[in-house]
Amino acid sequence: MTGGDIRLIAAALAGIILAIVMIVRGRLHPFIGLLCGAFAVGLLAGLPLADTAKAVQKGVGDIVGGTGLVVALGLSLGAMLHLSGAAASLATGALRLTGPKAAPWATLGIAIVIGLPLFFETGLVLLLPIVVAAAKAMPDEGDRDATKLRLIMPALAGLGVVHALVPPHPGPLLAVEALNASLGLTMLYGILIAIPIAILAGPVLAKFVTPGIKLTEPVMSETVVDLAPPPRGVSLFIVLLPIVLIASGEMAKLIPGLNGGGLLAAASNPVLALLITNLLALPLLFGRRLSEAKIQDAIWFETMGAAGAILLAIGAGGALKQVLVSAGLSDLLARLVMMYSISPLLLGWLVAVGIRLAAGSATVATITAVGIMPGVVAASGASPELVVLAIGAGSVFFSHVNDPGFWLVKGYMGTSTADTFRTWSVLETVISVAGLALVVGLSYIV
């Protein structure tokens, strides 16, 4: 390594540390902290200020212009499922069909299905109050709080696994686009490894970490509007529709004559798939009450409030990524991989882990990692689909105090900060490490 290489690595570390300090110690929004970190990296790496500013603008524009539409449409769909009562109806209906012993497995399955088209925070707000209410009705097995947690943790595991590994979640989807991976193969591989990981991080882990934990009364999400929930069949159709559209389009590319004049391939575009789902969800979930002003206001107020914070944070993550790329970090990592035979899967995972620990956001970690990995993938010949999954696994490593999801989970579970580390942080770490292990194992098969 040359002196310039060492300077570049030091600049990247310094910029990331600055972002951490501003976010964690300075209590600033990640949007501001990450932007300051991006400018610090550029200046310390020797980029002219004007070039750094252009890189920041390009990074924000690329992310918000691409993934931003998926995020916004996913959030609006989540708001509709929440306000109409569709998500609550699905969850409570499924839990009623199971006995107490099967309830943890039912919540795991519900979380995976409901979590597929939704942002993690949206899925959490939709599902966890329902699961907490169901947990209160569980038979007392001696340790009441542990019994509740054995129902809550599988729900968290299901949401966490699909958030990290399965498109059309924004993080994995962005990684697919950045690395030119096959969306269909990434979805297939992601689902194959997500199921055993969710079982390990959910029902299995809960048996070991829940004894002795004491819960306080959790924060509950209140329904904003008074609506009769739609039929469960309609609710399930809306939840699964974007997944079916995307999967059908991918299959149409592989099977001649199935494309229907290109309509299936077009509908498989995640933006179009989610837009179609949004347009169908409005009349199907709200019926005649769709035209009421308070219904429309509630939908779009809930959507825009969440979208603003998320889009700003991931946009700033894109800025940091682009400055790192413009400074030459991607090329440096590609050279190191070829020189020292570092596994691209391990490298992608480690980069995502580092950004996750620094910035808190799994989506920001994914954006930053995939931005500097294309050169590594091209130089090594690694499977881009598996690199996407390795980065996704690394992006959820050890959620802690700089992750907004940490405090959201803490509030809904009713755990202390220490017990949130013991449950939620350990759960995310199990997903991350098991994800890397299964991705590496899969690399020997495919």
TrEMBL record:
Main location: membrane
InterPro entries found in the cross-reference section: Glcn_transporter
Membrane-related topology note: Multi-pass membrane protein
Superkingdom of origin: Bacteria
Membrane-spanning segments: 6-24, 31-50, 70-95, 107-135, 147-166, 178-201, 233-251, 263-286, 298-320, 332-352, 386-401, 421-445
Keywords carried by this UniProt record: Cell membrane, Membrane, Transmembrane, Transmembrane helix, Transport
Signal peptide range in chain numbering: none
Keyword Transferase tagged: no
Localization of this protein: Cell membrane
Family, per entry: Belongs to the GntP permease family.
NCBIfam families the UniProt entry points to: gntP (TIGR00791)
Official protein name in the record: Gluconate:H+ symporter
Source organism of this protein record: Sphingomonas rustica
Source organism phylogeny: Bacteria, Pseudomonadati, Pseudomonadota, Alphaproteobacteria, Sphingomonadales
